[in-house]
Amino acid sequence: MSAQAFVQNSTVPTPPERHYDLVCPACGHTMADDGLTLRCPEDHAPALLRTRYRDQEPAVSPESDGLYRYRRWLPVVRTLPGAGGTVVYRSEGLGRALGLGDLWIAFNGYWPERGADLRTGTFKELEAYAVFGRLPERPPVLVVPSVGNTAAAFASVFSRTDVECLLVVPGSGLHRFATVPGIAPTVRLVSITGGDYDDAIELAERVSALPGFRAVGGAWNVARRDGLATVLLSAVEAMGALPEVYVQAVGSAVGAIAVHEAATRLIASGRYGPATPRLLMCQNEGVAPVHRLWHGCPEARRPVGKEERRAATGRVYADELVNQHPPYSLTGGIEEALRTSGGDVLPCPGEDARAATELFARTEGIDIEPAAAVAVACLGRSVREGRVSSGTRVLLNITGGGRARLSAGMRDDRAARPVLRLDPSTLESPGTLQRIRELFPAADVSA
Ligand SMILES: [Zn+2]
């Protein structure tokens, strides 16, 4: 199999006709997509809906930019010109340094010499492009809570559209907007000074319940998962086969779940072997909710107090990996993906991640984001401990990189200016919801 082995198919239906259905893995319920649905309407335990595409085989649309090359396996009915995508190449320097002979890097970020052009420097842009493409003709205001990277990605992508969205981030995430070229007035940024990701999630939930507003839905949104799944599709096109091991730093682990789903889909098409890649998920030592759940630590399900949570978040190397409520035990969630792939979760000390950042820059020649450094460090440890052998075909997801390249020459004070800065103590007051509602006078409250 090679790049030509993916069938070429450029025919894409126009809205409202869609080239896929939504299927519930728990009860089998199948439905047409309205572009917004997040959950199965049947009454049962939580389950992540999946897409079922008309094409059983992977196909590429070579005329489409970036990730839209895989639009036949994306739940999209429109695309944005100039979209970016993942760049996959075989590593020499890092592979040699780690003792791996068949290491492939999926680079997400900005690296012009390699053709990587995700302008906010992370793979969250893949989600934003796919979510935009999935929306119906007249969408409600999309509500996106984020540590910072996801919001920056949505700000960048949605500023090139006429779709209104609300981004909710902790104040500590504002610096991630430094490379966003210019935020359109349709995109409103609200920050929570001194707040954390959970505060952003809680506020976003309340706003999403207002008429005219809808939650983008984290792992629940099939577009976010299938957008991230294009990392694997790009890799399989470049590698000519599925990887045996897939390595990624995880917060909500939406990307890892997505890669597992895409691998399952490729295997079902009959040409990609019998086994999905073993998922190696990586987190910060100290605040590692997925690691604790997977290894059955009794206190893993203990509710963590807000103060404790904020203090812990301030200590970790990669603060985008601290989601305390990852989609773990539901049907189609993290636990199922780890179990069926024979995967594992590793914690990484901050000093190892720091060393990995330097190692990557020295051996591959580009800066990487803290989360990606956690993945590099965990892969190194896995090789040293014999969990991954030297001949294994490994795909390492560099979930973000090139931001230093991108911001070179830019002034440091370009951090975004929120239209509203909230104090954590005001999040539950009705006045706060009213102020947010007033930011969107054109919102269609009948939606
Ligand atoms: Zn169902």
How does this model look, in words?
- There is one protein chain.
- This protein is of the alpha/beta class and 447 residues long.
- Among the domains are: 124-220 and 413-438, 3-Layer(aba) Sandwich (Rossmann fold), CATH 3.40.50.1100; 231-407, Rossmann fold (3-Layer(aba) Sandwich).
- It is built from 13 helices and 18 strands.
- It has helices at residues 93-98, 124-134, 149-158, 197-208, 222-239, 254-268, 289-294, 306-315, 334-341, 350-364, 370-384, 403-407, 430-438, and strands spanning 7-8, 20-23, 30-31, 50-53, 59-60, 87-90, 103-107, 110-111, 116-117, 141-145, 165-170, 187-192, 213-215, 245-249, 278-284, 344-348, 394-398, 420-422.
- A six-stranded mixed sheet has the order 6-7-17-14-15-16, sandwiched between helices.
- Helix 2 (124-134) packs across helix 3 (149-158), helix 2 crosses helix 5 and helix 10 packs across helix 11 (370-384).
- The relative contact order is 0.15.
- Residues 24, 26-27, 29, 40, 42, 44, 47 line the site of zinc ion.
Can you tag this structure with a few keywords?
Rossmann fold; 31% helix; five-stranded parallel β-sheet; binds zinc ion; alpha/beta; 18 strands; 16% strand; 447 residues; single chain
What is the element layout, followed by pairings?
Blueprint: E1 7-8, E2 20-23, E3 30-31, E4 50-53, E5 59-60, E6 87-90, H1 93-98, E7 103-107, E8 110-111, E9 116-117, H2 124-134, E10 141-145, H3 149-158, E11 165-170, E12 187-192, H4 197-208, E13 213-215, H5 222-239, E14 245-249, H6 254-268, E15 278-284, H7 289-294, H8 306-315, H9 334-341, E16 344-348, H10 350-364, H11 370-384, E17 394-398, H12 403-407, E18 420-422, H13 430-438
Parallel strand pairs: 1-5, 7-17, 10-11, 10-13, 11-12, 12-18, 14-15, 14-17, 15-16
Antiparallel strand pairs: 2-3, 2-4, 6-7, 8-9
The site of zinc ion (ZN) has 8 residues, from loops.
